[in-house]
Amino acid sequence: xxxxEIVEQLEKLKNPKNVDGMAKFGIRPKTTILGISxxxxxxxxxxxxxxxxxxxxxHAHALRLWETKIHxxxxxxxxxxxxxxxxxxxxxxxxxxxxxxxxxxxxxTSLFDQTPLAxxxxxxxxxxxxxxxxxxxxxxxxxxxxxxxxxxxSKFYPFLRAIEKEATDERNFxxxxxxxxxxxxxxxxxxxxxxxxxxxxxxxxx
Length: 206
Fold this sequence. Notes:
Layout: H1 3-13, H2 16-24, H3 38-52, H4 55-67, H5 71-80, H6 88-97, H7 101-110, H8 118-125, H9 131-147, H10 157-165, H11 172-188, H12 191-205
């Protein structure tokens, strides 16, 4: 399956009626949007991965799909990419292209959180100024809290400090992601981190 064939398949799945509905939920990317649901995209991605049957080919196709500047093609890029093949350069390139909360959240919690750079980038990105780059940091924290069951508690203490520091950011997509990260750390790990998360929440409240 070629990149062109994948895009042609997406064109057949497009649903213009869904575009307005997605916009109501704040999904208004600057890229071309086709109105395909995430559920359909995940199923499509599984089929593509089976057909490609090679991590190397999946990586190459993911890079090509991202460059199409089609919203749903970028979702497919996230779903077919192998986290072991991702470089720091690729992560930085992709977050600079984030133009919508859903692609930001899918990339961080379905892919980036499985990379060796995840903890480093989660903390680093929360210091960024651009809205979706900063959101990416907090979304990545949330993903790590839920998915990395074996992580030592000490890895999450810097996250709580970052959440407290950025709690005054009034931008909706940043504020919500910070709350998401705090809630995930508090309820997804253990009693110790729950205690620290509650303490962090109390400081923010004050």
